[in-house]
């Protein structure tokens, strides 16, 4: 799979988050054939919901499309390193591979703060970090700069 192609789709969703006042994080899930079956963007502010992270939205949509909670054979692409909640959802959905852009130094659960995927769970996704990381960091920096007086 062309990781950059899917990350560009996720970045587009992240931009939509920023336009709606949410931290710009976007996520897509592609199945083994490369078809995007799940899309999500951060909607915590818009939905007043602490669990409305991009990964959670994408996982929910992919599960509906698949008709199953198991997302084996899929790849999750997200612009920012998943937090512990999202890493847990990835493990529970049995997603075998995670590709992310920028590291999240304050809540990252794929190596920045902790690595949930290396713990003794029955399912351990592989991780590929840094795809379009500069673009993701720039988008985040612009968003937070626009929020500061």
How helix-rich are the residues, as a percent range?
Answer: 25-40%
Largest beta-sheet characterization: 5 strands, mixed
Structural class by helix and strand composition: alpha/beta
Rg from C-alpha positions?
A: 14 Å
Indicate the proportion of strand residues. 15-25%
Number of helices: 5
Number of strands: 5
Spatially, the strands of the biggest sheet line up as: 2-1-3-4-5
Low-confidence stretches: none
Give the SSE layout.
Layout: H1 3-19, E1 26-30, E2 36-41, H2 44-47, H3 54-66, E3 75-80, H4 84-92, E4 97-102, E5 126-129, H5 133-147
Parallel strand pairs: 3-4, 4-5
Antiparallel strand pairs: 1-2, 1-3
Describe the fold and architecture.
This protein has 149 residues and is of the alpha/beta class. Helices cover 39% and strands 18% of the residues. The protein contains five helices and five strands; from the N terminus they run αββααβαββα. It has helices at residues 3-19, 44-47, 54-66, 84-92, 133-147, and strands spanning 26-30, 36-41, 75-80, 97-102, 126-129. It has a five-stranded mixed β-sheet with strand order 2-1-3-4-5. It is globular, with a radius of gyration of 14 Å. The relative contact order is 0.16.
């Amino acid at each position: 799979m062309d990781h950059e192609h899917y990350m560009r789709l996720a970045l587009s969703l992240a931009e939509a988050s920023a336009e709606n006042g949410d931290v710009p994080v976007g996520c897509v899930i592609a199945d083994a054939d490369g078809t995007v079956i799940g899309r999500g963007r951060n909607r915590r502010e818009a939905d007043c919901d602490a669990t409305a992270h991009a990964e959670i939205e994408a996982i929910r949509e992919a599960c509906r499309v698949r008709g199953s909670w198991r997302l084996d054979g899929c790849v999750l692409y997200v612009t920012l390193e998943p937090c512990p909640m999202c890493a847990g959802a990835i493990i529970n959905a049995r997603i075998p591979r995670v590709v992310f852009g920028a590291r999240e130094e304050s809540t990252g659960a794929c190596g920045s703060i902790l690595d949930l995927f290396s713990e003794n769970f029955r399912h351990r996704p592989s991780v590929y970090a840094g795809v379009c990381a500069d673009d993701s960091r720039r988008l985040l920096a612009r968003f937070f700069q626009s929020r500061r007086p």
